[in-house]
Specification:
Layout: H1 12-28, H2 37-42, H3 48-63, H4 74-126, H5 133-140, H6 148-156
Helix pairs in contact: 3-4
Length: 157
């Protein structure tokens, strides 16, 4: 994996503009729902094969409404299909944007962490007597691991 380091900034004004754009998107989609993990599990999922199935079912129902029970709301089905199809390109675009933001955040976080490790190692190597002992010790807490014996004793209690 060969990539160049990220050298960028995000000004407060730009960040606020992006956050405002996200707020605007949410306002333009007031029907969005927030499902729990259990609700998400329980719902049937509509992928590419299911999209074709649903499209055919809507066509069949539209052309042959006489076999449907009176309680079946064909107009509501049509609205659901139309809304799904309208949301689909948004979902693809937002998913791509989220992946880019995730990857960039991961990469720049990794760069920052690698630099911090260098600082820590340099401070450890040259910090004796330079007044850095307390800082180096505090930074070193990041790498302290609990012994397995302590965990075993806690589990036994």
């Amino acid at each position: 994996m060969s990539r160049s380091p990220i050298s960028a900034t995000l000004a407060q004004k730009e960040r606020e503009a992006v956050l405002q754009a996200i707020t605007t998107i949410k306002q333009k989609l007031p029907f969005l729902v927030d499902l729990s993990a259990d609700e998400r599990k329980a719902l049937p999922k509509m992928g590419d094969k299911s999209r074709a199935f649903v499209s055919k079912a809507l066509e069949v129902a539209t052309q042959n409404p006489e076999f449907l029970p009176r309680s079946f709301d064909l107009d509501e089905m049509r609205k659901d299909v139309e809304l799904f199809e309208a949301l689909y390109p948004l979902l693809l675009s937002l998913t791509q944007l989220q992946e880019l933001v995730d990857d960039t955040s991961l990469a720049v976080g990794s760069e920052a962490f690698a630099s911090a490790l260098q600082v820590y190692n340099y401070a450890k190597a040259s910090g004796q007597g330079a007044g850095l002992d307390a800082v180096v010790e505090a930074m070193g807490q990041r790498f302290v691991r609990k012994s397995k014996k302590v965990k075993s004793k806690e589990a036994a209690l």
